[in-house]
Amino acid sequence: MVPTLIMAGGRGSRMGLPIEKPMLPFLGKPLIDWVVGAVLSSQKISEFYVITSTNTPKTEAHCLSMGWKILHTNAEGYHDDLKQAVNKLGWRGPVLTMPSDVPAITGKILDRVIMEFEECGKDFLAVFVPIEKRKRLGLSISSTDEYQGNWYAVSGINIINGTKILGEGKTETSAIITQEIEVTLNINTTKDLEIAEQIMKK
Fold first, then answer.
1. pLDDT tens across 130-152, in order?
2. Is the separation of the CB atoms in 102 and 186 below 8 Å?
């Protein structure tokens, strides 16, 4: 069983909207609700916290009203907030981290990611999507990373050994490369939101 952090403290400035990104309506529910729903349906997640900051007070209030555990960080950027959260919680084993903007994600896929991590024997597992797949769907390419000489779109779904987040030294990395729509639909722009809603309606 692996604990999970849902990262929901970013400014979401790329959306250019007055509403906090995790609270954006997606098929009638805030984005964050879809992600939490997937986490709750997972068989392999032990507990979860939603990571909030001064950027996302409405998200924080919403999560508390739903009875979900929140952890407030300093909004110093994704990686700093992640490090701060793991440090505060004292999690030293594997930690699943994911953004609040992957509304198509399912518990089944999260379970598979956890199983793959357990089998790979590395300290870090990233889930990547081929850049061409996002381009074909008309989705934005905002965040990319290199793995074994190729560049991929970042899904934001990762598992990392908590001790490695806090420590120094090289981290052994493994990756899942997938074209599954549940992972591909990561919302960074209003156009992404429209495309994702159309795909999910089908």
1. 999 999 999 999 889 999 999 99
2. yes
Domain count, the chain: 1
Angle between helices 31-41 and 107-120 (to 10 degrees): 60
1, 45 in Cβ contact below 8 A? yes
β-strand 144-147 against 173-177: which pairing, if any?
unpaired
Q: For 113-118, what is the mean pLDDT? A: 95
CATH number of the domain that residue 114 is part of: 3.90.550.10
pTM of the predicted protein model: 0.92
- Range of 24's domain? 2-201
Range in 18-22, 37-41, 74-78 the model is least confident about = 74-78
Q: How many CB atoms lie within 10 A of CB 87?
A: 13
The answer to whether 187 touches 34, Cβ cutoff 8 Å, is: no
Long-range contacts of range 87-90, CB-CB < 8 Å, 24 or more positions apart? 87/166, 89/3, 89/49
User: b vs e for 139-155, b when ≥16 Cβ sit within 10 Å of the residue's Cβ?
Assistant: bbeeeeeeeeeeebbbb
Q: What is the pLDDT of residues 147-186, one digit of tens each?
A: 999 999 999 999 998 887 766 556 678 999 999 999 999 9
